């Protein structure tokens, strides 16, 4: 509680005590007993109130001890976000944008019990907006990463984090939609293409990096972004449209970051024309300056995709914008084979493309 809140409360309580003394003769009987208002008495609560494990309170009780808040301080100021324990030997998962700038400043990880430890970023990627932080600690309690491919629209979920610095905040909602193409970040932090889980659980600035868990307390998403009303130049709070990185993607990326400090993503080796507005997405009709729209001997080239070809669908799922195709591809793994529906002129065909490795940019 801030000092600005404390002072008025103290003054108010003193005034209340003074008035209580003045009015005491009017409300307390002569024998010293307070008048009975006739309200039923409430039994004293038990020392421990139990809640069902599957209730929101039960889920929160199991998850909260493993959720952390992170504060980054640089010459430009301080920022904060959330995260959670990934491994018992001190690894914490969060968003890349939460720890951006930590290399030039300080990073402190605060645990649920109030303990604070300095943290070091062992790996980060702006392309997936994920980062792994290491603290010098053992015996921590990690959260289990669930299978995000198993979630369906309507499943109940709980979001936990430190919105606006309010540590240990719990909000509830449902899975509102799946496979939402979300593009976030940019500039020095890289552009993240997320095949996101959408939720109506309240997510606000500071929730970033915190867990979105299912009814079993398993992490199914990493809270990362909120929708912004059209025309707003500044960020807003929750409007019931929050987005989380699926846990399966987070697992793959976190493993790479821990092992190598970097992450990779799958590519097909084409450049898409942002000016195209027809059905599907189109490969540039002519090579942009100093580059090739179809990478020579890349996956698309080997599959027979050429300049001006229009990609209509991936694995039977129609695409209507470039970011939809990009996030759908990045949700796969290097070496996976996908089927693209491609149109050349008036002819449509299905082509099989084996995804190659693209090197993700560091956070």
From TrEMBL:
Database matches in PANTHER family: PEPTIDASE S12, PROTEASE DO-LIKE 8, CHLOROPLASTIC
Source organism per UniProt: Cellulomonas dongxiuzhuiae
Protein name: Trypsin-like peptidase domain-containing protein
PROSITE patterns per record: PDZ
Transmembrane domains' residue ranges: none
UniProt keywords, alphabetically: Hydrolase, Protease
Residues of the PDZ domain: 269-346
Record keyword Membrane present: no
Entries under InterPro entries matching the protein: Chloro_Bact_Ser_Proteases, PDZ, PDZ_sf, Peptidase_S1_PA, Peptidase_S1C
Presence of keyword Hydrolase: yes
